[in-house]
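User: Show me an example of a complex going from sequences to structure tokens.

Assistant: Sure. Here are the input components:
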Amino acid sequence: MLSYILRRIVATLPVMAIVALFVFSLLYIAPGDPAVVIAGDQASPEDVERIRQSLGLDRPFLVQFGGWVWRILHGDLGTSIFTNLPVSAMIGQRLGPTLSLMIVTLLLTIVVAVPLGVVAAWKAGSLIDRVIMGFAVFGFSLPVFVVGYILAYIFALELEWLPVQGYTPLTQGFWPWLENLILPAIALGCVYIALVARITRAAMLEVLQQDYIRTARAKGLGQGGILFIHALKNAAVPIVTVIGIGIALLIGGAVVTESVFAIPGLGRLTIDAILRRDYPVIQGIVLLFSFVYVLVNLMIDVIYTLVDPRIRY
Amino acid sequence: MALLEVDNLQTHFRTPGGINRAVDGVSFHVNEGETLAIVGESGCGKSVTSMSLMRLIPEPPGRIAGAIRFAGRDLLQLSDREMRAIRGNDISMIFQEPMTSLNPVLTVGRQIRETLMIHQGLDKQAAEAHAVEMLTLVGIPEPKRRVREYPHQLSGGMRQRVMIAIALACNPKLLIADEPTTALDVTIQAQILKLMLDLKRRVGAAIILITHDLGVVAEIAERVMVMYAGRKVEEAPVAELFRSPRHPYTQGLLGAVPRLGSSLTGTARRLAEIPGQVPDLRKPITGCVFAGRCALATDLCRQYAPGLEEKGPRHVAACHYAAKGAVAA
């Protein structure tokens, strides 16, 4: 098992290298010259050329790429063209809010979507099932920003139960932290909850037909034990897979959600960096997101072996 | 003393094509410690009967009517909670498919432990120790290691042994075995049957054995009930039934058992078969259910359903002509 995890980590290196190549090519092939952006409107061609040389932009592609990778391996993601701050520091500042938002959304989704899917499958064809699946279709069709503004209007502006926007770090207390994340997490989680609930229902429906469920009933088990232990553990592989894939969904959704709720996270940083053509920052963020995704996939593969003893690597 | 008395059991299913009368007015009893075999071809209602006894029929679309008196209580009148306390404890069940009847993601030990913890109130350690004991009892080598294994690590025969261990863990009064050996190799079949009989003697349980294998019936049953199209057509002690079957359907079943012979010595015989098919249970049947396939059927059979009549000592059959001994076995 440990050797498998190690092998998998080694196997992610080529993936990360290819991602790095793509990310770096962004800077190279994108229209616009960073040197011109930095130099500003008043600069002479000589100034631009000097900046270009100081940044190493005049050297061949592979040399630039090699140097860039070398610096990344040493923890240096470069310096923002716009703020002159190290990219790693800028990402570090913004990581907390985004990570908080994603974790709260992930937990909310699992806690809400899995039981809903289980109940829908258990009561398949009933009114409860139809109501749950109706909500799932609804949640699936609504864009994050629409849900976000509606929630903010009702619960923050009208009822004044929760703050409209902003973010408080966890270090200032659990509730102030959570309070700011509830509405964004619901808005961001809507699509995700719908997806996971549907998959849970489908997987459970299939499992509930199996002979071993009949055996469990014949043993005198209660409905809860049958659904949540005997059935859910068998249905877990597709559910875990979709939860993992959904994390990619969250990364995309976080960018929009952070804008709606004015959360100073990576999403906002990404948008600002793109608008300013701050390539080192864009590269750093994309590289980080790719790394997170690769890591999540590895975690999913490990979780498979925990829920299904027949899966061994 | 009857442990189980089933009175006019009717299990019907609502289907788009009409009401399927899978079991239609079956009555029988099982005495304490007795082995009753229920035989019949696929679709005759024998499995539905056994599932009805445990109330494992999904309702709806199913509906169970009649009375199932077990140790003096009518199971059909019990609440779900009371019924759960009986399942796996007083009445337990072994299924046909050992490959799929065990939960693939839970250890063997956990699946045995569960019934002990629910019904006997044992804690985890005590249940685990008992599980190891049960595995030893059903003849699984290295039980201490096996309790921690998963079903996919065991062979088919071993898995059926585990099913038997689960079924007998709480010393049930009645064991329902639904084709317990059908999916196994012939050599393993004999072992499993012997094991069931040994354990039955030890625990003192009564057995309802559901099968279409008449060889198995001859070997372990004391009484036999023959079902056809959701009804009981004949019932007799096992020796009596094999010696003088009265119902033409039973005779057909016995005739369809392959016998050894060889074309070299001229002793080969073509295997007898019962022509035709089981009637559609979604349509009401007038007259004898077997009339459509019976060589002896007359207008009487097609118009009036025969009742179960005494044809010999403890021997009943539902046939207008059986009493006359019109057909020799």
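The lines above are the inputs; the final block is the predicted structure for all two components together. The mean pLDDT of chain B is 84.
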